[in-house]
Amino acid sequence: MKNRFLREEFEKNIPGEIKKALAFCSKAADELGLPIFLIGGIVRDIIINKKNFDVDITVQGNAIEFAQSLQNKYPEIFKLKETHDSFKTAKVVFNIDGKCVDLDLASTRKESYPYPSGLPVVEKIGCELYEDVIRRDFSINSMALSLNKDSFYRLVDYLNGYDDLQEGVLEILHEKSFIDDPTRIIRGLKFSVRFGYKPGEKTQKLMRECLESGQFDNLAGERVKLELKQAFNLNRAECLARFINEKIYRLVDTGISALENIDEIAFDAQKTISEYSKFIQNNDNIWLIYLGTLLSGCIPEKINHIAQKLYLSGNEKSVLLYAQALCEKQGFLRNSKSRFEVYEFFEKAQIESIIVFLIKNKDLKDKVDLFLNGLKDIKISIDGNNLIQMGLKPGPLFSEVLREVLKARVNGEITSYEQEIELVKKFN
Ligand code: ATP
């Protein structure tokens, strides 16, 4: 292993308050004689000069005991937030110069996979650092940076991560890596699209073999969901296109029928999402638009099945089902004559479903725009109290009358409170 020190990169890319927190950790670890490292994504990002505030630290020993010693040593500025006993990990926070610095502390651990796609079993806690890095996904994510005083800034790179990073290649760490955990394929897609890195030839071959094997019965849907979310939330057409073209969709469901013109659809999806971003309240939901686009041609039973597999929330599932339903009845919108018909078509749909609909029905853009830019926010001024004051008896007629008033407003036939009252009088 080459002797590399990342002093310059560390000093440049780590914010001051995080540096101070790391200095406290370093001192405490030295006193206990514990080897301590920054590890994984943050080391990768230091090297490529990218800011990353997810600070993962690993100690070659017991991270919970280490966190407790930090608590004793720095009670005024340190707080132990939570611990996970079976993995011996801890989430902690330092209060430095009025800022909260969150750190994830883990104990080095050796893991094994008793069966393909299953959850790993912890074999040893506090193992040698090498055992901890060999369980990771790609060489670029397997590097550690020493935080002990006598070797501070030293890069520990057992698996050629530094060179792979410079060359922009993604390499898994052993032949069985994808079989053990196929979600690494989606992670690979994410890193590849995000950084422009390419999987090495052997990694590509092993990925294809894993996807062909179809042995995903034990694969935990929540983990697939988590990775899918991160990949599609990049909002990159390439991600959806490769998800289909490289058959990665098999991890979700082998029966997703691949869309013929996926490159074009993926391109339209990215473009439409960017164009309508001001309507999307939660950017964390972008992935649902991609998934919805893929599934909009499926039958509802299939969508329900996939939603169950991925442990989607009720709301996430309804975005997908609603998108499918809108696409299925697109003829209604196509034939709509009045503004109110457009309103009725979209009124119960969430924005993510509407965008899926638009991606699949580009020629109906005018009507979608009419709804989003005008109709969706139309409200009427009167309510049930006005109707009671006007002598109407509460009952089912109320909602009928209010709906008629709304219809007239949306169609532009009336524009004021007074005109609404006049209209209600006709029902009296
Ligand atoms: P991002 O920049 O997208 O957050 P990250 O590399 O920091 O990416 P995390 O999901 O935060 O990713 O994971 C932290 C580290 O844990 C990774 O860098 C990697 O070393 C390891 N890791 C995460 N998921 C896996 C996995 N499925 N298999 C093996 N190692 C993993």
Q: How many H/I helical runs?
A: 22
- Largest sheet strand order: 1-10-9-2-3-6-5-4
CATH architecture name of the largest domain: 2-Layer Sandwich
**How many angstroms separate the termini?**
88 Å
Radius of gyration in whole Å, from Cα?
A: 28 Å
The residue ranges in which pLDDT falls below 50 over 5 or more consecutive positions are none
Structure ligands? adenosine-5'-triphosphate
CATH superfamily of the largest domain: Beta Polymerase, domain 2
Tell me the major beta sheet. 8 strands, mixed
The CATH class of the largest domain is Alpha Beta
What fold name stands as the CATH topology of the largest domain? Beta Polymerase, domain 2
* Secondary-structure class: alpha+beta
Q: Work out the number of β strands.
A: 12
Mean pLDDT, all residues: 96
Beta-strand percent range: 5-15%
| Anisotropy-based shape | elongated
Give the count of structural domains.
Answer: 3
Which bin fits the share of residues in helices? Answer: 40-55%
Features:
51% helix, alpha+beta, binds adenosine-5'-triphosphate, two-stranded antiparallel ribbon, 428 residues, cca-adding enzyme, domain 2, Beta Polymerase, domain 2, 22 helices
Structure description:
The protein has 428 residues and is α+β, with helices and mostly antiparallel strands. The chain folds into three domains: 4-167, Beta Polymerase, domain 2, CATH 3.30.460; 216-375, cca-adding enzyme, domain 2 (Orthogonal Bundle), CATH 1.10.3090.10; 384-425, no CATH class. The chain is 51% helix and 13% strand. It is built from 22 helices and twelve strands. It has helices spanning 7-13, 16-32, 41-47, 63-73, 129-134, 161-167, 177-180, 183-195, 201-213, 221-232, 237-245, 262-275, 286-295, 300-309, 314-328, 330-334, 339-346, 351-360, 365-373, 384-389, 396-410, 417-425; strands at 4-5, 36-39, 55-59, 78-84, 89-96, 99-107, 109-112, 121-125, 144-146, 154-156, 169-170, 198-199. The strands form three sheets. Strands 1-10-9-2-3-6-5-4 form an eight-stranded mixed β-sheet. A two-stranded antiparallel sheet has the order 7-8. The chain has a two-stranded parallel sheet with strand order 11-12. A hairpin with a 7-residue loop joins strand 9 (144-146) and strand 10 (154-156). The longest helix is centred in the N-terminal third of the chain and has 17 residues, at 16-32. The chain is elongated. It starts with a strand and ends with a helix. The model has no long low-confidence stretch (mean pLDDT 96). The structure holds adenosine-5'-triphosphate.
